[in-house]
Amino acid sequence: QISVPKELVALMSANRDGEAPDPEDSAHKVYRFSQNVPIPCYLFALVVGALESRKIGPRTLVWAEKELVDKSAYEFSEAEAMLKTAEDLAGPYVWGQYDLLVLPPSFPYGGMENPCLTFVTPTLLAGDRSLSNVIAHEISHSWTGNLVTNKTWEHFWLNEGHTVYLERRIGGRLFGEQFRHFQALGGWRELQNTINTLGDKNPVTNLVINLDEVDPDVAYSSVPYEKGFALLFYLEQLLGGPDVFIGFLKAYVQTFAYKSIITEDWKKFLYSYFKDKVDILDKVDWNSWFHAPGMPPVKPTYDTTLSNACIALSQRWIQAKESDLGSFSSADLKEMSSHQLIEFLALLLLEAPLPLSHVQRMQEVYNFNAINNSEIRFRWLRLCIRSKWEAAIPLALKMATDQGRMKFTRPLFRDLYGFDKSRDLAVKTFLEHRASMHPVTSMLVGKDLKQDQ
């Protein structure tokens, strides 16, 4: 139980067990909590703040400061449908309540899967529920991560690869199998982007990494998420498709629930579950998947239906000469979803920077500066800075400091540091904001900007 000033609310990674006036202090209130499921220590969370809640499902309240609570309730209203789908895929939800808490903008991650109380970044509040895959991801952790846990952070892919796999299975159920493949292919490109940044010989791009004398926060990247997912997606295709593979995942969760395991335990169980397919499993290049840096040894097969429009438009821009710029118009985007806009920009970021005239024309016809969806804005501003558009410098600095989600803040600062016209301003801005940043964000951006003396 926790006593807090009565105008505030206390929440925990546990079920709420009532509140009462503090008998020892009339200005305080006591909040009680219970957690009957054993959890590893990294899932222990406690929050106190001026919070309000809205009920968005039979087992779900969304908590936020009053300015954001209604917007949050709208944004995350699919939570119950996602929970039901996850239960169908992975087994019963054992935690009781599933609440969501919107944190202040300095929160460094997209979400954190604290049991009974997922923490999320306010950068998910796009206004159209288009970034709700992060909610599906955190919900999925209720099985993979929170029930079956990696024994050490060297095996972090067991938590994250399986969780991304489940997240995308939920997306497939709710929005169709083509959408699942579209998200999966987007993940492959995200992995390419990460490996381009880190270097394809860098040992932190191994799926199973060696953390001797390495800070896990420094090694953190999309690799355990997306290389882990790619392995599971590849195995799904190898072993008989989604319906066959979900049987394995369900049995895996049942077998190892309430335990911490390593990659070898997972692999042994895979072989015992698919004992009639050992010949197929023996053909997998396990050593490269687990212990080699860079991209995986095999690329899974993807349905590209929803990606094709993104690829076609990005290629038009890449191949366009100055004289072709008049052929672009706002009609190019008419049929595209916000997910497809993200993918269009992500594809351009994998290529050499576009000429400045191209990004200026892109702003003229598409007006990306007016879009507040964080995933679109982030990629658009990176594209502008890479093409050395000076007018984008203040916009990129603003986004890098208005919020502190490392997925956005680190690459924006890195790109600004890499552009001679903005390097000094990037360092100056970082030093001014450092004190109000989350300590992990501050440490990592400091390293990126060579300020950590």
Helix and strand layout, with pairings?
Elements: E1 2-5, E2 9-12, E3 15-21, E4 28-34, E5 46-49, E6 52-57, E7 60-64, H1 69-75, H2 79-90, E8 99-102, E9 111-112, E10 117-120, H3 133-140, E11 148-150, H4 156-175, H5 177-198, H6 216-219, H7 223-239, H8 242-256, E12 259-261, H9 263-273, H10 278-281, H11 286-291, H12 308-319, H13 338-349, H14 356-366, H15 374-386, H16 393-402, H17 406-418, H18 423-433, H19 439-448
Parallel strand pairs: 7-8, 8-10, 11-12
Antiparallel strand pairs: 1-4, 2-5, 3-4, 6-7, 9-10
Helix pairs in contact: 2-3, 2-4, 3-4, 4-5, 4-7, 5-7, 5-13, 7-8, 12-13, 13-15, 15-16, 15-17, 16-17, 17-18, 17-19
Explain the overall architecture.
The chain contains 19 helices and 12 strands. It is an alpha/beta fold. The chain folds into 4 domains: 2-140, Zincin-like, CATH 3.30.2010; 148-291, Neutral Protease Domain 2 (Neutral Protease, domain 2, Orthogonal Bundle), CATH 1.10.390.10; 322-387, Peptidase M1, leukotriene A4 hydrolase/aminopeptidase C-terminal domain (Serine Threonine Protein Phosphatase 5, Tetratricopeptide repeat, Alpha Horseshoe); 389-453, Serine Threonine Protein Phosphatase 5, Tetratricopeptide repeat. The strands form 4 sheets. The chain has a 5-stranded mixed β-sheet with strand order 6-7-8-10-9, covered by helices on one side. α3 packs across α4 and α16 runs antiparallel to α17 (406-418). The protein is globular and about 75 Å long. The protein starts with a strand and ends in a 5-residue tail after the last helix. 40% of the residues are buried. The mean pLDDT is 97. Belongs to the peptidase M1 family. Keywords: Cytoplasm, Hydrolase, Metal-binding, Metalloprotease, Protease, Zinc.
